[in-house]
Amino acid sequence: MSMTAKPDPLDKDAKLAALERLLADSAFRVSQRNRSFLRFVVEESLAGRSDRIKAYTIAVDVFGRGADFDGMLDPVVRIEAGRLRQALAKYYAEEGQSERIRIGLPRGGYTPAFELVGEPECPSRDVEAPAPPPPALPEPAAVSWAFPQSAMRAATIARGAPAPARPPRFLAKAAGSWRIAALAGLALLGLATLGTVVAKRIIPDEDAFQSPIVMIARPQALTGDAQTTALSRTLAQSLPAAIARFEGLTVVAARPDQPDQDLITNTLQRELASRRIYLVTTSVKVDGGGARALWQLMDGRTQALLWSATMDTSFAQNTTGAVEDETAQKIARALASQGAAISSFELRAIPDPIPPGYACVTRSRQYIANLTDAQRKLLAECLETTVAQTPEYAEAWAMLAYIYVDESRVRIDVPEVSKAALAKAEAAAARAEALAPFSALTQQAISTTAYQKRDLARFETAGRRAIAINPSDPNLQVILGNRLFLLGRYDESMAVLKQAIASRPAPVATDNVNIIYDLYRRGDYAGALALADKAKMPGYFAYWLVIAAIHGQTGNTEGAADALKRLNAIRTNYGAVMRADFRNRGIPEAFIDQVADGLRKAGMPVE
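User: That's the sequence. What structure does it adopt?
Assistant: Structure tokens below.
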């Protein structure tokens, strides 16, 4: 069969044509100056002048501002970029569904992104045969009507669990529109959009355990100076975007002309009484040295105060981004990351036994760093049921990939089982990527699976992409830092881990495990033992393993015997597979020998 060279479907001409079709379509509802905004950034990008795509250049060349333009005092570019992102997300979710080349404006800058969606209507015959399908995974009994969860409920600032299995009255026409799933990336990266509430909600089952709604009130300026006023306005875009980057939350924010009380009233009237609703309020002030934000988390129904804190951002230390972005990330991290305010309340609300859906995914994320065999089996069954019932639930596929990778690691003693689990992990990660390619959780699942396959280039690319998508989530940095340590990139891994730990709103003991191992590696047994005593992880086999090795090196026979006893209760006869397990994790041989030496001295037979 001959091979015919095909033109690049994302070449410059194709991108320009996509721009012209978009701007000519009356369904793309934006102001004339935002059409000029989009044309400017696309044409500059395609001309190789991306370095000119800055807020100052856009303000002067597109919006007619003077040469003295100051983005801190005049947020016009940020505000209009937010409106443009909203319009793009809405267009591609509705009238523009059939468009194969989609234009986005990723959060964090103004350089456009282009995405190729779907396949040509009439593919050429002169192409390679398709690759064999991935290993079979649970399939639904029938085609689901569900609007793809990762499409962010078109034209909304929303992230959350997918809808249950019956169609909403006003979304029935969207049944089978698989192309919407590809919008996930553009919608996620365009989250900094005000004037948006949940316009097309899914009607849930009365008894369903659903993801919570997080209402974001407009930030209030505590003083009337220009800098504080500007910060409150720009934070109104940055904060909903930062919180919405965390999976499992449905985030809604008021329109610029909408009172907060109107947002609250409309949301409460629209949602079932069983759904948990939170309200976030912020007040800000700018002084000579930096910005201070006071945030509060309240019960959205009763207005009862659940949590509050103050966040300071120093102008001198903030060298990597805008003050409002750094402030928003700090607040989002304190609210939505692992062990933070919202996640703590959500975990308390999960019923037992864990039902499929959002509850299952949320519980999986809590356990993923330290799974017992029983938990792994329980969560695998729960997640498999979830994706069978709701095949467009990208987060469930991503967590299922994690579970399968963990199974592949722990079943190294049965190679065929380990290999089959890794194949299932690949298929689950691929499904998550097809549904939500720009989800941080998806990219982390891809990274974890690639690491286990020893596709190290893809592991690092996807891991760093996950962090770029959600820089507010320290968990993503911890995972990357841990993998770098296993690869022997010790200094780099320690820097990543310590930075992530410092940014945690609440300590997570397992963050420290590889720091303990690094102290052991360097012969600092006293330091390793001191940190292990401080960061207790009684259910984690790697914790008792390193404690046993430390005591072996220091000659503490009593401590070594106790650690080995506890290790054996978690991983029976681990010495028989210790070397194979470490190699399966990619750990350098020299470090394997160093740990094995301590274990032998502790009294463990290591093969």
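Residues 1-5, 119-207 have pLDDT under 50 and may be disordered.
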